[in-house]
Amino acid sequence: MRSFPTGRMAIRLVAWLGLLLGTSPLFAQGTDDLLPVTEAYKLSSDAATPGVLKLHWTIAPDYYLYRGRMKFKGGDGVSLGEAQLPDGEKHHDEYLGDVETYHHNVDASIPYSVAAGTTRLKLSVQYQGCHEVDPKICYPPHTEQLDVPIPAGVDTKAPAAGSLGAALNQLGNRHDTSAGVVGAPLPAEQAFRFEALAQNPQHLLLRWTMPKGYYLYRDQTTLKLKDAAGLSLTPAWPAGTAHHDEHYGNVTVYFDQVELPVTVEGDLAGRKQLTIEARFQGCQDGGLCYPLMTRAVSVDLASGIAAAGATVPATPEQPPAGAATGPLQVSLIAALLLALGGGLVLNLMPCVLPVLSIKAVSVLESGGNRATARRHALFYTAGVLCSFVALGLGILALRTAGHALGWGSQLQQPLLVGALACVMLAVGLSMSGVVQFGATLGNTGAGLAARSGPAGDFFTGVLAVVVASPCTAPFMGSALAYAFAAPMLSALLVFLALGIGLALPFLLIGFVPALARLLPKPGRWMETLKQVLAFPMYLTAVWLVWVLANQRGADAVGLVLVAMVLLAMTLWWFERSRSRGVVSKCAVVVLAAATLVPMYLLAHVPPPSNATVAEAGVVAYSPGKLAELRAAGTPVFVDMTADWCVTCKANEHTVLDTQKFRDLLERTGTVYMKGDWTDVNPTISAFLQEYHSPGVPLYVVFPKTGGPGKQLSTVLTSSLVEHALTEATR
Asked: Same domain for 443 and 355?
């Protein structure tokens, strides 16, 4: 970016080290002409837009600001969302590496919410910049305290404790409302009024009207005509409000009211009436986000008004192909058999094998003792079944409340991913012989999950279910789809059948003597086997850390690695403290408490701002883009995936990340569209619900003719994909 005389390079480097820590004053050498920091970077604020604070820096000539050195912190009663900053000028700094800078001026928008009774918006703004001509000096980080009045449009009334509004805020909140900012949400019909009129037969005007504090997503809105073959709609969206959403990223929304001009493309052929169906989604600012809503209005083209001036009920949509018949078309008996088979095959999936190795060791250690083998099987099965029931109840309860959760979605929570990584490390250390839990109680196994007592067997069953969720085995998809749509009792029976299938191998070994006799006799080789099987546990921990890196970035990885080191230290000292006094045992408690500190910090790490990285030849999924491609007659292959989904990664390795697949896309003219469900994403959740999919992976092929999409198997083969894409282009 710039060069320095050799004699000043060392001084410059020392100055930078001090500046990065915020403790070094400006070097006085040749700085008489430098502007004060507040004149070099004049900061102004604008809080006229309710819920959004706008900042503006006017940057003097020959000065620049670092994009990555800007920090914002709310004061008492103020919670800030993620700041929206434009891309800066990219270049390589000698000391900071690859950076982005701003010249002349820059604007930032920061969404915020305030606690009840708060009348002033107080926050601290930190920034840092440099002078880029002689004297080439960088200012230390500078912090300004802002105190601006809150505009009248911001609601600071808290919902009553225990009210429906408070409960919905806890379940469906997209912004930080821990201080209680919003009131009880309105019914969807009152929060989002939808109407239409005809300006002339070819031009319509659609209108959404929202009360104060509600907004509509532009990109979550789709329009279509019902029973109007050969006609299509072309909307002309007006400019909206830029908004940063923690799930959708940078989006455009509309407050209060939006009027959308729409052109009817095609030959109306004397039609007197059109029925327009709109699917859209919106939120209460700082509160509940509503699920996708479907409304339909009939417009009289002759009179130019909506029929009866009211919204008519939308008829149920035809389900997509591949799921079109709905999950309940499968009988309960068929769903139970599919679940049993899926649970059985789940034992062979790579996510479950590391945990099953623990029980394999314990079964082998029991030798020919029939009573011990039965006890292993029964308590392991109890752990599996209880976990499946708990998981099923949780998913079904949240879905009943209107929230989209699916198979494996618990791994969208970074804290759980980090905790599982630590558990895998602890189990691995116990199998390696670093620590033995419960020796004073007469247990001889290593680790809670590996020990021979009932608690160890039960815990291993729990752990098997938790780590099984990233995998989807054959037969499972239809069974889980049935469970998510069936009555509660039938759904729980499906989850229990899955659990029985997963536990079936150990049940058979425990209760069928002929199978038990096939097992090798225990001996000294068992200890070696146990230590060898520790390494899959370590690899599972590594995989979970990789998932965490994709969810929350390098900061989260650093925190979980610190937690894992502290956990290893705790277990090591725990083993050494067995024969020592009370002080040594207290040190174990202190180390264990220290392990929880980085895990607490991990729970508060925000998603990285650059979490989405474009892949060559891949289009990021959005309903609007999909509708645009389909309207243009382009075949589309939609891939819903997640970094924690082992089945997804296996399909990518064997089929989707191959040159053969890329050649197939080019030959058929198909667009490859991918949606990432690694983190919570309501848009993808809505797509999964539309296809009755219990989770990822989900693959849907949309033909160029505009017909319904075809859902593919969760386990892909090259021939299956080639056949589907060839059919889609005919």
From this structure: yes
Q: What is the pLDDT of residues 711-725, one digit of tens each?
A: 898 888 999 999 999
Q: Which of 614, 730, 609, 610 is nearest to 672 (CA)?
A: 614
Whether 655 contacts 717, CB under 8 Å: yes
3-class DSSP assignment, residue 259: strand
Together in a domain, 439 and 468: yes
Give the residue, 321 or 299, on which the prediction is more confident: 299
Determine how β-strand 636-641 pairs with β-strand 671-676. parallel
What CATH number is attached to the domain comprising 207? 2.60.40.1250
Tokens 């990789």, residue?
Answer: 546
Residues 6 or more apart whose Cβ sits within 8 Å of residue 473: 342, 343, 345, 346, 348, 349, 647
Question: Does residue 566 belong to any structural domain of this protein?
Answer: no
The answer to whether position 167 is within a domain reads: no
- List the structure tokens of 319: 């389900």
> Residue 407 sits in which domain range?
327-423+434-533
Average pLDDT over residues 339-359: 73
Residue among 461, 450, 440 nearest 390 (CA): 461
* pTM for the model: 0.46
In the three-class reduction of DSSP (H, G, I as helix; E, B as strand; rest coil), residue 200 is classed as strand
Sheet containing 193-200, strands listed edge to edge, beginning at the edge strand earlier in sequence:
193-200, 203-209, 257-265, 232-235
- The burial class, CB within 10 Å (0-12 / 13-18 / 19+), for 126 is middle
Structure tokens at 426: 């602890």
